[in-house]
Design a protein that fits this description.
The structure is a single chain. By secondary structure, the chain is mainly α. It contains 11 helices and 3 strands; from the N terminus they run ααααααβββααααα. The chain has a 3-stranded antiparallel sheet with strand order 1-2-3, with no helix packed on it. Helix 5 packs parallel to helix 10.
Length: about 240
């Protein structure tokens, strides 16, 4: 049988804090993504465990625990006809020489007097973790300078990102930002390259690293970036 989607009902049945509820939602959403084209069975659950094996031990334990509690809920509420349980994965000693530990950079050159569109683009990526497609959808009216926040909409979901004073003081006097936002991806790429040798991907990674350094949880960072899963962020928390 197919895995029934009862995530909302399961979360409503629990007295979780808002943060815990979000944690479970991300784990169970990825669990359902895996079973989208699969029927639930012992064999499929073993494949799911194998799917998790590249993650950190703590991430594996969390995801398996979330799945087990959810499977129990489905069985107790007669949504599935038998109770399935995932056994925890036996952990091998991790070779930390192969862990992913990129260095944090500060980019002081980004914060000099504004000299052109490339610098503005670099700041948008570093300060908010935006990619080019998100920048192209921006409007100058999305920046609220009075209350210091930027509204970004992606796939119908709005996220509100704080504006730091060091960013505000350098860019809020810009008069023609909407012209830049309307340009092609190739134009944005070329302008960024004129200003810095770092790619948009490298700068965006620095945004993530700074959020991790500042104590943000993996789920908080996913929310800031507008991600539907935490998979691409796992490597920063190993």
């Amino acid at each position: 049988m197919k895995l029934p989607n009862e995530i909302d009902g399961y979360l409503s049945s629990k007295d979780f804090s808002a943060n815990t509820r979000l944690n479970y939602y991300y784990d169970l959403a990825s669990f359902h993504d895996f079973f989208e084209e699969r029927t639930i069975s012992e064999e499929a659950l073993e494949l799911y465990k194998l799917h998790l094996s590249a993650l950190s031990p703590s991430a594996q334990r969390r995801k398996l625990s979330s799945a087990n509690q959810y499977l129990l809920y489905l069985y107790q509420n007669k949504k599935i006809n038998r109770y399935y349980k995932l056994e925890q994965i036996s952990q091998k000693k991790i070779d930390k020489t192969h862990s992913y530990h990129p260095k944090i950079k500060e980019f002081p050159e980004f914060y000099g007097p504004l000299t052109g569109p490339g610098q503005f683009l670099a700041l948008l990526i570093l300060e908010f973790g935006l990619n080019f497609s998100e920048i192209q959808k921006l409007k100058w009216e999305n920046f609220n300078w009075k209350f210091k926040y930027l509204t970004v909409e992606k796939s119908g979901i709005k996220r509100v990102l704080p504006i730091r004073e060091k960013f505000s003081m350098r860019v809020k006097a810009i008069k023609n930002a909407d012209e830049l936002f309307a340009k092609s991806r190739q134009f944005l790429y070329t302008e960024l390259k004129k200003f810095t040798p770092y790619s948009s991907k490298e700068i965006r990674e620095q945004y993530i690293l700074h959020q991790v350094k500042n104590g943000k949880t993996i789920y908080e960072v996913a929310g800031l970036l507008g991600l539907s899963t935490i998979t691409t962020l796992e490597k920063y928390y190993r």
